[in-house]
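debug: dumping io for the single-chain case to check the tokenizer round-trip. Nothing else runs in this session.
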Amino acid sequence: MEPEADQKQKNQPDVNLDCRFYRQKYPSVDELVMVEIKHITAIGAYVMLLEYNNIEGMIMLSELSRKRIRSVSKLTRVGRKEIVVVLRVDENKGYIDLSKKRVAPDELAECENRYKKSKDVHSILRHVAQTTKTDIEQLYETIAWPLYNKYPHPYDAFRIAVTEPDSVLEGLEISTEVRESLLHVIRVRLSPKPIKIRSDFSVTCFEFDGVQAIKDSLLAATALATEKIQVSIRLIASPLYVMLITAVDRNQGMLLANNVLRKIMEEIKSRGGNLVVKEQPHFLGDEDDLELEELIKTMSASKKPGSDLEEEDEGMDVDIDDEEEKS
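debug: decoded output
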């Protein structure tokens, strides 16, 4: 059996992974900070300042609430996160006095947003530190803290670096290994997730070339797709179709969805047909997406040659995606 000291040494990380979020070692007076309640006593609550490498602070009982209270435990509990304002800082003795009652309600959102961004940046740098065996404080010195000179927050810089890495990382003194690791992590974590937009509509055309008119109208609409926005139109049960827009930007995706419907309307009406929107364009959740896939599979399985469905809808049964795959 290994000695306890050797076991502890094995469990320790190879590099330092602890560091404050900001260049200054202590917060400034009047600064809002995020803390976690560590210990509660009769006179107040001892806390850890989460943005300052968990250094200790104190919220006196009188600074917890404007209301008259007898017990600290009625206002907060161990492990709870609180936003407080800094009253006094004694760097020599390490004393930090804090207040919860002096925090204005309209200041909470700004502090929460800053803390979330800083926490995400810390998580990214921590991963890079582990991967490259680099002291995390060195990464803060060479990456995060210098980025405050160019951007409102390093998190904002990292988001831009997903698509513009050279402009963001220019001038930073980091190794190729650290750069590659950093870009890999931020692309995995911060790349915007695509959203899906759905709209159901029916298209009919009883003219002599009705089938071709429907096909041409749908193809003209899907041609509006771009490199960043995909357009898919699938047949559910003629004459009912479903349109799916896949995009990163919600506004651009919704704009294109409406343009696609408008294009189909223009094209099919010029050929003597009509379009009726059954469901206006709307954003899909994960469950809605799965439900739609099941619907399409079910309808595709039921549309077998010679089936009643095919005979009933003959002349308007056009699946634009299937036609594109064939071509």
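debug: round-trip ok. Residues 304-317 have pLDDT under 50 and may be disordered.
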